[in-house]
Amino acid sequence: MKTYAEAVQYLYNSRPYGKIKYGLYRIRELLERLGNPQESYPIVHITGTNGKGSVAAITRSILTSHGFKTGLNVSPHITSFRERIQVDGRDISEDDVCKTLRKLQPFLEKMDRKGEEYAPSFFEVVTAMSFL
User: Fold this and answer.
1) Beta bridge partner(s), residue 86
2) Total of domains in the chain
3) What is the pLDDT of residue 76?
4) Closest CA relative to residue 72, chosen from 83, 85, 58
5) Can you list the GO cellular component terms from the UniProt entry (predicted)?
């Protein structure tokens, strides 16, 4: 994947987008293969039915104003895939989308070879990207 367009095309064409895949074993295995990057910094995980986006934006704003580096993983995006992963209020760069997918690709291919049940979903891949 040399270009952003190729990276996004790879992501949408190689992952079961919109298909719900129950279980945490795929994301756990993928993150373990990556060295569990999510364990290298504190995380605020916001859950619930309504208001997650607002709470996340307010939390990010407060933390950033106090000098913390913040990351935000949101879904869905409005106009660009890059909106899904933000650092300090800025969308991930096209270059970083390419870099993170290139880093993930060999791990994804290994998991894909185990069969569709083990192939990480679109959402799981984007989640892993956000931790990198």
Assistant:
1) 72, 91
2) 1
3) 86
4) 85
5) cytoplasm
